[in-house]
Amino acid sequence: MDNASVCKKLATTFGLAPESAKVLIVGIGQTGLSVARFLTQMGIKFAMVDSRDNPPMNRELLIEMPDTAVFTGGFDDAAFAIATHILVSPGVSLQEPAIQKTIGKGVHLISDIDLFACSVTAPIVAITGSNGKSTVTTMLGKMAEADGKKVAVGGNLGTPALDLLAQEAELYVLELSSFQLERMENLEAVAATVLNVTEDHFDRYSGVKEYAEAKQKIFNGRGVMVLNADDPIVIGMIESDREILTFGLKNSADFYLNIEQDCLAEDGRCLMPAKGLPLFGTHNIANALAAWALGRAIGLKDTAMQMALKSFQGLEHRMQSVAEINGVTWVNDSKATNVGACVAALKGVDQKVVLIAGGDAKGADMRDLAPIIKAKVKAVVLMGKDAKLIRQIVDKTVPVKSAATIQEAVEIASGLARTSDCVLLSPACASLDQFENYQERGRLFTEAVKGLAA
Question: What is the mean pLDDT of residues 315-330?
Answer without folding.
Answer: 89
